[in-house]
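Lab notes, practical 5.
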Amino acid sequence: MFIRKNKNRSGSISIQIIRKIRGRNKVIKTIGCAYTQREEELLKIIARDEIEKIEGRQSLFIEAEDLVIDAFVENIENHQIQIAGPQIVLGKIYEEIGYNKIIDDDFFKSLVICRIVYPGSKNKTVKYFKRHLNKEVSVYSVYRFLDKFHSRYKEAIEYQTYEHTRKILKGRIGAVFYDMTTLYFESSEEDELRIAGYSKDGKNQHPQIMMGLLVAENGYPLCYEIFEGNKAETKTLLPVLEKFSQKLKIDKPIVIADAALLSQKNIDHLTEAGYEFILGGRIKNENEQIKKKILTLEIRENQPKEIRHINGRLIVSFSTKRKKKDFQNRQKGLARLEKKVKNGRLTKDNINNKGYNKYLELKGKASVAINYEKFEADKYWDGLKGYITNTTLSKSDVIAEYQNLWLIEKAFRISKTDLRIRPIFHRIINRIETHICICFTAYAVYKEFERLIEENHLRLSIEKAVEEIKDIHQLTYMLPKSKQTKTKLLKLNDIQNQIIKKSHDHY
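Output from the prediction step:
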């Protein structure tokens, strides 16, 4: 006889005892289903004990204590073992940020924690509630909560998040980072909010919404707004900033955004409103006079140069690494164009300034060809990067601040990958807004957990830490005589001990 484990559709592992009879495997007994490594190991121990019983290998002289323990273990059911770590650790963080003061509702708290440890559809959420929280909820009760919640708490949650971020940053938010992303729906139907548009996820045929996110230093969240799916990125920056400053009544920080948000209208409004800014510059789109000046600057690695600009200062830096990447990207773009030209798949409608189509030209009356002189001329721009600013910061400080934009890219990556903010399965606007509010709250808790790990030098990634707390279980049992129900944490490993201790000592 031997132990076999099978992976079920639900993601659980079935532990079975198998015996080979006439060359075929036969299931003798199914021990149970495990959802984590620890549960799997426990079921394997029970299975090995069961095999010994069946094969008659157990000692005839069993101590009374062993019989008691053996009977206890044999009667443990799956529902008695629950995941406790997320509620102990992330629940503590949730409360320390202060969300429980806004919403005195464990349901919202559990939805936020579930989004971090078991992100997915509402059906998956219901399974989490039943399996790990011992709560019987239906998909419809989740939907009713989303409808009830709607946007009632959004501003309060944003304010509490801002207050927590300000506390972390010692009371000063000197710079804010803004960017947009697209969130697509698993649906083909559009409405006034869900509209097909250019998708950063490559899902151009799916309805989508736009989400603008504002974060502070280290990617700590501040606020967000959602827009209809075909909204131009350049038209989202100012509404978010205005709502942010109006709601929170704060001094105007330096606004940092990438070149996609660079429009003269945005710059004019930022200047009129008294904002300082650092924006990614599209140096190849500047006028001929500025472009000639840039190419005569002889910019070297770590020696940025500066020229006067209509919007303040234009700082240009050079990177050998960026030069190599720019060249490789141009080569790939050229190769794709050459293949399309060779196959006759391009027409005069493809001649435009979009991407590498700028290298195309009309040859004769109808033939599309590649202008290799344009391609060669572009090599002088490889490795150059521009920054437009009206601040008085040094050139190196401007570049350093702008380079922190990767933090918001990381925020979007966490939201999309770790928290599964998309695809969105809802179609009612109230539910869409609540879903995004839950994800925003979960991101704030996630970032605080990450900070706790770093500041306490626990030497593990946030992903590993989440996996560790998911593997912290508790056993609920009833004492046979007193009928008293008790709950005990199963033995923790060293890392889990440290996480729980630090999460409670830290605050």
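Observations recorded by the TA: The mean pLDDT is 81. DSSP finds 18 helices and 16 strands in the chain.
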